Amino acid sequence: MGPYDLLHSVVEVLERLQIPYLVTGSVASMAYGEPRLTNDIDIVADVHPTHIGDLLAAFPAPAYYIDAEMIREAIHRSGQFNIIHPASGFKVDIIIRKETPFNQSRFSRKRRVRPSKEYEADFASPEDVILKKMEYYKEGGSEKHLRDITGILKISGEKIDRQYIISWAERLGVEEVWEAILRRLN
Q1: The whole model's pTM is what?
Q2: Domain 3-124, classified CATH 3.30.460, yes or no
Q3: CA–CA separation, 168 and 128 (whole Å)
């Protein structure tokens, strides 16, 4: 199983269970920018305790690893849990959706993207991917986030709503990162 096969399996389940979700992180960066290697898929999802049994049934052991207690804890703490496909080593990080103005905005701006010929999925917009990558960069300083952002701007630059990014960068406290990225592009 490849990463996009695993993504397909997870998307099918989330859509069948009517759980709102967004593909984000490196997979979304690649959809709008340049390809790179990754072993994990990040999805923000509105998972509730009533979904736990259905999620466990949809991803049975030994084909998958998913833990009920980890899901409960993730929901309780607004954290994350994993769905792992041990045979391939690929995993999906399910990040519990928090009710914030930014999440409300990015869920309202989701895009339907075709990551492979077989299916479509809900992806965060390129602007929202850039904003989250700037937050991650500010938290940890990893250059991969800056590379992802510049890749998106190189490939999708004409389609990017820079005013939206400027507005949210200020609200999220990452305007200095945005200014540094713009200097890097020139």
Answers
A1: 0.91
A2: yes
A3: 9
